[in-house]
Design brief:
heteropentamer; A mainly alpha (about 170); B mainly alpha (about 500); C mainly alpha (about 475); D mainly alpha (about 100); E mainly alpha (about 600); C: about 475 residues; two-stranded antiparallel ribbon; 2 strands; about 75% helix; globular; E: mainly alpha; 2 domains
Chain lengths: ~170, ~500, ~475, ~100, ~600
């Protein structure tokens, strides 16, 4: 029962905060709305018994949103939300496509005969996850690692202009 | 041997590309002349070597998984065309001795064209055939665009490329259908002809023939796929036109006798009447439209449509079994092949002659000239001979061809053939009119800028290029046996293949 | 577990070269960075050797069921490594001595690595991870020169990739939901009894990400912008290398993971191929900047290649056609871009006028490559097209072959629009005809020769591409 | 708590994110939209794991992959924004539309 | 030997023609020499009757043979050629290699025609003859009228030649695979009729029988020696010869023989009337040729081969004589108008006398040649049909009338002021001296002798006897009467326009055939440029809307096509580029929409 209540609350929170991301007119508030939405989802993941992943999501998103807030303030002309801002285009079309997508997805979700549940959660999902990461999905993780390495190189290349040889062009 | 004949020009072209363009132009034209002479000599050797069926066969596996091999050989149908190619390119080499514009590229392109033309006629593999077919388009495009008459030449060249390339791809589609129909899959012409993979007919076979037929019809060209031809001819240089009409058009008709008929005999028989109708329409339409032209080169171009129409009529009639005997069908087939040779020689000469006309007067407009016979009697005489040869006068090769086609085709398609015979009347009229306008009557020369010099008669090098072509056409017209002895066994074999 | 690192030798070589190269770059003086390039080339060359050695061994699936080492993987490795080598060569003139030369090389290696993994991935999660690895370095490469257009190109490339990546992840999730697994083997079982609607949507979503890699409709929007905004060397890389991995991945996904009756795959890909080739060709018609023109041409080329995907499993030639086509396309396209890299100031068609006079060898190489892209024999793409068309007709898609033929003819138009000024006798523009160096020309001539050699001797390669990856459980 | 409810939530988040990605001019806001979409994917992945195949571990790995992807895309996105801001002082997609046609 | 017979004139002619101006000096002598040689070989061949053949095309051989009919013909042809060439030596305008060469080729082709044993060879020679007639009639190529006349001759006869081509095909179809003339009657089924019809059309066209007579009128533009040869032993005679040769075939069909007979009779009569109405001497002679050939055709139709052949030979001698004489006057006096030729015979007695002999023979006056030969034909006709006979007799009377008319004019006392060159005079300057020379005179005399005596030929060669002596007497008496009557009324004879213009067939032919063909050609050319060439264009344009087609129509034809495709493609291209707006959010929207559609397709189509 508590689970159901929690679900509804968290779901509503995730959606509402998600919606607010594009409705608020201050960068700081937007960022925190997004964070709130993520945290709600993290709680939902916790609710499903994936404690470790829920915690990871929460932690990651907090850090990410902080960085994002910094970026917002660095690059956007309205850091503190002092002025109302509307920086949207094709709002109607976007809304139409988004609502259409939702309707179609929802229809599919409700109509599709989803597979029945098979098996039970392992006693320690986190352990199983670790085993998988070091086992069957090792290559995936290695690839993701290399991807992170590539991301570092890429972000350095993109974000810094001077390079390691100084200013000479 | 055949590989040597085919690749010798390509090899020399590659070598010439390494020679700096600043070298004297005699180096290039001389090399071309020498290669043509050697090729011609080799072809004569091949011709004189006795044998039957496919000779000088070379076969090397090329892409075995997809049934492609480097397979070449000559028989009585391809050998005359190989010889024609060697002769006509030789004539163009002689004619080009006076060429001054970017000679290196010019000669290299012609040598490349020579190689692919020879290659096409000896190819016994569909993909090899297609390779040469396509390359001929590419090289001819560059020739027209680069050495044609200015800006319009580029438009004409583009049209030529797009149109004939579409045709070639239709052809490729047909080849793929043939390949898939054969078991085991192969692109080999001889094997396909032996296997007759689509003997059962049906829509698939019809589709294959349609694709191949359209592809070849564009190249031939037959009505209504001919509209690329007049602009391409009008804008091309004289030698380019001669090769285009003399050799490249033959690739289409050769495809009919080498591919469409032997590999799809049943389907060919089924739809032969279509070929007959297309042929007759091309004959009459080409002749009538040519009659209305005021541009002499355009006129000659349209007569090509007319002459190729006879070929299509002949091959079509050879596919109609009912009411005919072997002799008639063989005559039609032999006539069609003979017509290819005859048209190559005669129209090649005519285009070179129009090149002379343009060189002197800077225009192809017939109305700009009159009474040239007084200034240039030799030119007028040679042109008249070529014109009469082209209108099918006995004593020239064209008659031997057309007579056989008419005689052989009448039994199977009486009405169509009778209509086609009327085409010779229109051809006669149009050539007489052209002769009258340009050469006869009171003398008048164009006074366009850039033509202050007097209208010079045929020069030695021009005559040396053109006269042998006409002489050969005359020899074939009077003593055709040496040619027919080569063609007839092959056409008999072809008729048997079609009739199976 | 079969975690044999030797099976991934080519991949490990690339990774090692990338890491070592980055470290080396940190220590090398600016004008010695060519050592990094040399290292990369050595790694790629060694990778090719390793690929050749691996190809004679029997197929295997390593790291659980996540990575297949089989014919398509070998082919992907060979093509990508070869393309990396050529890209290393043709980029010398533009990047040598640049302060980010090392990063350029490292990013190229990482992107190549990701592309190879994409081709070999046998698991949806690895597929997505490889997608990330194959994307991120190329985003950075697009913005590598930091010019206004280059960064815009990087932005669009990135935003396209991010969006379609999200869609792809959504698709992965749906497939996981309905198929109870992410490994291709498990999926094949799971999808057999899955609700078809959901499976179809999931597959389309996954394919969306791969189409982004392949630069095919509807994931093609970045292609013209990213190609036009970047230096030729980068444009050559981003239009060539990711396509290989993307198309092989699509092929593998549908051959291995998706039971034939889940959705009408041939129709889906026939539509995608048809739209891609037609749109690419039409949009290329009247482009005046050569890079944009080539960009659209690559979209249409992806369409031709996708024909083989459409008939995979229905025509015996499909896999050979796809792999050979990709190789032929890579060589030919790189050759065309190499010419651009050699003449970086000639941005428009008109800038190329009179090129045959000034640089005859380069002009001939360009002509060979462009005619090759058309599919004129005896170039490699002709053999590829022949195989693709044959496969399409064999697979019952005659209309697609006909459409491809019409498209090919249409494509002639714009390629010739480019070639015509090249061979026109007019006086060239000296500024536009300034050569950047020699490596671009070397690469161009090499590619032109290779495309002809592949075209003539391609038959020898075709049989070695025939072995189709076996569906799991010996089906 | 049913699979359908979770999936509806996921779809809702996905749709909201899609709306943002489509409608926002600022690159950073646009990235937020993409993040929200991934947020939905996480919900769906977790739900599928719990309701369809809790016995397996693929769903969990999937969530890990999604989180990594989020991080990677965020990082690259910020780098791109930095680069384009340096090069032309814009952070709007609409302002960076020189490449077209 | 037979090869030599045809090869000598053909090769010599070809050599002379090719050599062109360089050989002008030796050409007249060479021409006469070759013609003499040819005559010698012809006589030898006529005696030895050789036959040769060689393979031509599959199953069809090229055969030559001399039998009774062709023996007569080869000698006639060679003789006429010799006479004409000998006479032409005198005309400075004709002392060219071109003239001599073409004349020899012309004669050589005729020799092949008359000796041919297969249709293939016959057709070859037949067509070459037509081409040579073009070259000779248009000998004065700088005069547009001459060239046009040559065109008319060649095209008209080639129109008829179509019949030969059809006949050849039909013969093959009908089972006569060797195309041997002797086998043609054996063709089976309907093909027999096709063969016959084709041959008849070809022969009638060549022989200028109705309704294809008009080309002969125009052919008078050529030099007179050309006319002399063309009207006597070659060209027009070839048609008659062919019909005589194929009389068995005509008989085999049932309908062909009467048809041919009637055409011949009608031509004889109507062209006789036309001849009577002419005021131009050469036109009169030309029409009379048609008329006389009509008798030969009639002979072929009624089976009187011997009479027809005799008529052919006698007519050849007579007509070449008359044309040479007329040509002499034309050269000397610069006119061929009867009114201006008054006194011509008085001033040039030899020409006058020989002309009169020829005219008398033409008139059918006993005991000259044509009286006999014509009556052999008429006798044969009488065996078949009285009406035919009556028509023939009337035609014979007409020949007496027009011959007399011509003679009457030339013997009238001279009117010097007219002779100097009247309004109708041709360009040839009057009084160029005596061109004919001794050789020319000899030719005239020799021909006159032959014209007078050849009537005995049939009796000599074949021992024929007049079948109905009363008929001979009757026609002789009628001829004398007609001559006498005409002599009295010659000055007052009218020239009805219909007859003077050769029945107006040419104008009709122009209206019915030439102009429609030209118009059709123009129309098709326009169609080709506008419609067919732009079909591709239109297809491309249709995709963007029909309106554009109308919009661009005004553009040049050649450019328009490529540009047309370009326009269509450009529109499509623009359309294809439109999605590429440069705006990322629009890319997103499009990609999302496209993916949605794809998903839909995947779901719906399965």
């Amino acid at each position: 029962m508590l689970g159901i209540v929690l679900f509804w609350v968290l779901a509503a929170a995730a959606l509402v905060f998600g919606y607010l991301v594009f409705r608020l007119d201050s960068m700081a508030r937007v960022t925190f709305a997004l964070l709130a939405s993520f945290l709600a989802v993290a709680c939902l993941v916790l609710l499903l018994g994936l404690g470790y992943l829920g915690a990871v999501i929460a932690l990651m998103m907090v850090i990410e949103m902080v960085i994002m807030a910094v970026f917002m303030i660095m690059y956007m002309m309205n850091p503190a939300g002092l002025m109302p801002m509307t920086m949207v285009h094709n709002e109607v079309g976007s809304a139409a496509i988004a609502i259409g997508t939702f309707v179609v997805l929802a229809a599919g979700i409700l109509l599709v005969d989803w597979p029945a549940r098979e098996g039970a959660p392992p006693p320690d999902p986190t352990y199983a996850l670790g085993e998988a990461l070091m086992g069957g999905q090792m290559l995936t993780m290695m690839t993701l690692g290399v991807g992170l390495f590539a991301t570092i190189v890429a972000t350095v290349v993109l974000a810094t202009d001077r390079g390691r040889y100084g200013d000479d062009r | 041997m055949l590989s040597l004949i085919v690749f010798l020009p390509a090899l020399v072209a590659a070598v010439l590309l390494l020679v700096p363009a600043t070298a004297p132009r005699r180096v290039f034209t001389g090399a071309w002349l020498a290669v043509s002479a050697v090729d011609l000599a080799l072809v004569v050797v091949v011709w004189l070597t006795p044998g039957s069926g496919f000779r000088f066969v070379e076969r090397v596996a090329w892409m075995p998984t997809v049934g492609i091999s480097y397979h070449v050989g000559v028989d009585g149908i391809s050998l005359p065309l190989v010889a024609l190619t060697a002769v006509l390119f030789g004539a163009c080499a002689v004619f080009s001795l006076r060429e001054t514009r970017r000679v290196k590229g010019y000669v290299a392109l012609f040598l490349a064209l020579q190689a692919v033309s020879l290659g096409l006629f000896v190819a016994l593999d569909l993909i090899l055939f297609f390779l040469f077919f396509d390359l001929s388009i590419v090289f001819m495009y560059f020739l027209i665009a680069g050495w044609g008459h200015g800006e319009r030449a580029r438009a004409a060249a583009l049209k030529f490329f797009l149109y004939t390339f579409l045709g070639s791809l239709a052809l490729l589609l047909g080849f793929i259908l043939l390949y898939l129909a054969a078991e085991p899959h192969t692109f080999d012409i001889v094997e396909l002809a032996a296997a007759d993979p689509l003997a059962g007919g049906g829509a698939y076979a019809g589709l294959a023939l349609l694709a191949i037929g359209v592809g070849l019809a564009v190249k031939t060209p037959t009505v209504p796929f001919h509209t690329w031809l007049p602009p391409a001819h009008t804008e091309a240089p004289a030698t380019g036109s001669a090769i285009l009409a003399g050799i490249l058009l033959k690739m289409g008709t050769y495809g009919f006798v080498r591919i469409a008929m032997p590999i799809l005999p049943g389907t060919w028989r089924q739809y032969a009447v279509v070929a007959v109708v297309v042929g007759v329409v091309s004959v009459l339409y080409g002749a009538l439209v040519a009659l209305a032209q005021t541009d002499v080169k355009r006129m000659v171009a349209y007569t090509s449509v007319n002459h190729m129409g006879y070929v299509v009529l002949g091959v079509g009639a050879a596919g109609i079994i009912a009411g005919t005997d072997d002799q008639a069908r063989q005559l039609a087939t032999t006539g069609a092949v003979t017509q290819m040779v005859a048209h190559g020689l005669i129209t090649g000469a005519l285009f070179l002659l129009t090149g002379v006309l343009y060189d002197r007067g800077r225009t192809y407009d017939m109305a700009a000239y009159s009474g040239l016979a007084a200034r240039a009697p030799v030119f007028a005489g040679v042109f008249a001979v070529a014109a009469f040869a082209s209108l099918g006068l006995p004593g020239f090769a064209g008659f031997i061809a057309e007579f056989q086609i008419f005689t052989g085709a009448l039994a199977s398609a009486p009405v169509a053939t009778a209509l086609a015979v009327a085409g010779i009347l229109v051809t006669a009229a149009l050539f007489l009119r052209a002769l009258q306008r340009v050469f006869l009557g009171p003398e008048r020369l164009p006074d366009a800028p850039g033509t202050p010099r007097p209208f010079a008669d045929l020069r030695a090098s021009e005559a040396a290029a053109i006269v042998p072509l006409l002489a050969l056409a005359t020899v074939i017209g009077i003593l055709p046996r040496f040619l027919l002895d080569a063609i007839e066994p092959a056409s008999r074999a072809l008729v048997e293949l079609v009739a199976r | 577990m079969n975690e044999n690192p030797a099976a991934l030798l080519p991949e490990l070589l690339l990774l090692g070269a990338a890491v070592v190269g980055l470290l080396m770059g940190a220590w090398l003086p600016r004008h010695r960075q060519w050592l990094v390039r040399l290292l990369a080339a050595a790694a790629a060359g060694a990778g090719l050797v390793a690929t050749a050695l691996a190809a004679v061994r029997p197929d295997e699936v390593v790291f659980g069921t996540s990575y297949a080492v089989d014919t398509p993987t070998h082919a992907t490795r060979a093509i990508v490594l070869g393309a990396v080598l050529v890209a290393l060569a043709l980029s010398v003139d533009a990047t040598a001595g640049h302060r980010r030369e090392t990063e350029f090389v490292v990013l190229l290696l990482l992107g190549g690595l990701g592309t190879i993994l994409l081709g070999g991935a046998n698991d949806l999660l690895l597929l997505f991870a490889a997608f990330l690895l194959a994307s991120v370095p190329f985003y950075a490469l697009a913005g590598w020169d930091k010019s206004a257009l280059g960064t815009e190109a990087a932005m669009k490339y990135y935003l396209s990739g991010a969006f379609l990546g999200v869609v792809m992840l959504g698709g992965v999730t749906i497939l996981y939901g309905v198929g109870r697994g992410v490994g291709y083997g498990a999926l094949r079982d799971g999808l057999a009894g899955a609700p078809l609607t959901a499976a179809g949507v999931g597959l389309v979503a996954v394919v969306a990400g791969l189409l982004f890699k392949a630069g095919a409709v509807p994931g093609h929007f970045w292609v013209p912008d990213a190609t036009a905004g970047t230096p030729p060397a980068v444009a050559a890389i981003v239009t060539t290398i990711p396509k290989i991995g993307g198309l092989v991945a699509v092929y593998r996904l549908f051959v291995v993971a998706v039971p034939p009756d889940v959705l009408d795959r041939p129709l889906l890909f026939a539509i995608l191929a048809a739209v891609s080739m037609t749109l690419g060709n039409l949009a290329a018609f009247f482009q005046n900047t050569v890079q944009r023109l080539l960009a659209y041409s690559t979209i249409s080329q992806a369409g031709y290649a996708m024909m083989a995907v459409a008939v995979a499993g229905r025509a015996e030639l499909a896999q050979q056609a796809l792999l050979f086509y990709l190789a032929a396309y890579a060589v030919t396209n790189l050759g065309a871009f190499a010419v651009l890299a050699e003449l970086p100031r000639a941005r428009t068609l008109n800038d190329h006028r009179g090129m045959a006079r000034r640089h005859p060898a380069l002009a001939v190489a360009l002509a060979v490559c462009l005619l090759g892209l058309i599919g004129t024999p005896p170039t490699a793409v002709f053999v590829g097209k022949l195989a693709v068309f044959t496969a399409a007709v064999d697979g019952g898609y005659l209309w697609l072959a006909v459409l491809a033929i019409v498209n090919t003819v249409a494509s002639v138009f714009y390629y010739l629009r480019w070639l015509a000024p090249v061979f026109r006798g007019t006086e060239p523009d000296p500024a536009a005809m300034t050569r950047a160096g020699t490596w671009g020309a070397v690469a161009a001539v090499f590619c032109a020769c290779l495309t002809v050699v592949l075209g003539v001797l391609g038959g020898a390669i075709l049989p070695s591409l025939a072995a189709v990856p076996a569906p799991p459980h010996g089906e | 708590m049913t699979l359908q409810l979770f999936l509806l939530l996921a779809a809702g988040l996905f749709a909201i994110g899609l709306y943002g990605a489509l409608s926002q001019q600022s690159i950073v806001m646009l990235m937020m939209g993409l993040e929200l979409m991934l947020n939905g994917v996480i919900v769906a992945a977790a739900a599928f794991w719990y309701f369809v195949s809790p016995g397996g571990v693929d769903g969990q790995v999937l969530i890990v992959v999604v989180i990594t992807a989020m991080a990677v895309e965020m990082a690259v996105g910020f780098a791109v924004v930095t680069a384009i801001y340096r090069a032309r002082q814009v952070d709007m997609t609409d302002d960076a539309a020189d490449l077209k046609g | 030997m037979l090869w030599w017979l045809v090869a000598v004139p053909l090769l010599a002619g070809a050599l002379l023609a090719v050599a062109g101006r360089r050989a002008d000096r030796v050409a007249p002598a060479a021409g006469v020499l070759v013609a003499t040689g040819a005559l010698a070989i012809a006589i030898a061949a006529a005696v030895t009757r050789p036959a040769v053949d060689a393979p031509l095309v599959a199953g069809i051989r090229a055969g030559l043979a001399v039998d009774g009919l062709s023996a007569l013909m080869v000698v006639t042809v060679a003789g006429a050629t010799l006479a004409v060439l000998a006479h032409a030596v005198g005309d400075p305008e004709l002392r060219t290699a071109r003239f001599a060469g073409f004349m020899l080729l012309f004669a050589g082709a005729m020799l092949v025609t008359v000796t041919a044993t297969t249709l293939a060879v016959l057709l070859m020679a037949w067509e070459v003859m037509g081409a040579m007639s073009w070259a000779l009639i248009a000998y004065r190529w700088w005069e547009p009228e001459s060239v046009t006349a040559g065109h008319t001759a060649f095209l008209t006869t080639r129109l008829a030649d179509v019949g030969l081509y059809v006949a050849a095909g039909a013969a093959l179809a009908g089972g006569a695979g060797s195309l041997a003339l002797a086998e043609l009657p054996g063709a089976n089924g309907p093909w027999l009729h096709v063969v016959t019809a084709g041959l008849v059309v070809a022969a009638l066209g060549k022989s200028a029988q109705l309704p294809l007579s008009f080309w002969l009128s125009q052919a008078m533009r050529g030099p007179s020696p050309v006319s002399a040869l063309l009207h006597s032993a070659t060209m027009v005679a070839a048609g008659a010869y062919l019909l005589l040769r194929l009389a068995p075939l005509l008989a085999a069909t049932g309908w062909a023989a009467p048809a041919v007979a009637w055409v011949g009779a009608a031509t004889a009569l109507l062209m006789g009337l036309v001849a009577v109405a002419q005021t131009d001497l050469k036109q009169l002679l030309a029409a009379s040729t048609c008329s006389q050939i009509g008798f030969m055709v009639l002979a072929a139709g009624v089976g009187g081969v011997r009479g027809g052949a005799a008529q052919l030979v006698a007519h050849a001698a007579t007509k070449s004589l008359l044309f040479l004489a007329a040509g002499t006057w034309l050269v000397l006096l610069g006119t061929k108008q009867l009114g201006e030729l008054r006194g011509a015979a008085r001033r040039h007695r030899l020409v006058g006398v020989t002309f009169t002999v020829g005219a008398a023979a033409l008139a059918g006056l006993p005991p000259l040649s044509l009286w006999v030969t014509k009556d052999l034909v008429l006798a044969a006709a009488l065996d078949r049909s009285t009406v035919l006979y009556a028509v023939g007799l009337a035609a014979a009377l007409l020949s007496a009338v027009y011959s007399t008319k011509a003679v009457w004019w030339v013997w009238r006392p001279a009117q010097p002021e007219v002779i100097a060159g009247g309004p109708n005079g041709t360009r040839a300057p009057a009084g160029r001296g005596r061109p004919a020379g001794r050789l020319g005179d000899a030719a005239l005399v020799g021909l006159a002798v032959l014209a007078a005596l050849l009537g005995g030929l049939p009796f000599v060669t074949a021992g024929a006897r007049p079948s109905a002596w009363w008929e001979l007497v009757l026609s002789g008496l009628l001829a004398v009467a007609a001559v006498a009557l005409t002599w009295r009324v010659a000055a007052r004879m009218g020239e009805p326009r219909v007859l003077a213009s050769w029945l107006g067939v040419e104008r009709a032919a122009h209206a019915v055939v030439v102009r429609p063909v030209l118009a059709m050609a123009e129309a098709l050319a326009r169609f080709d440029d506008r419609v067919l060439d732009r079909g591709v264009t239109a297809a491309a344009r249709a995709t963007v809307g029909v309106a554009r087609v109308l919009d661009r129509r005004g553009e040049g034809a050649v450019d328009g096509s490529v540009r047309g495709i370009a326009d269509g493609a450009r529109a499509l291209g623009r359309l294809a580029r439109r999605p590429q707006t440069g705006q990322v959010h629009q890319y997103y929207a499009q990609a999302a929409a496209a993916l949605a559609v794809l998903a839909l397709v995947v779901i719906v189509v399965r």
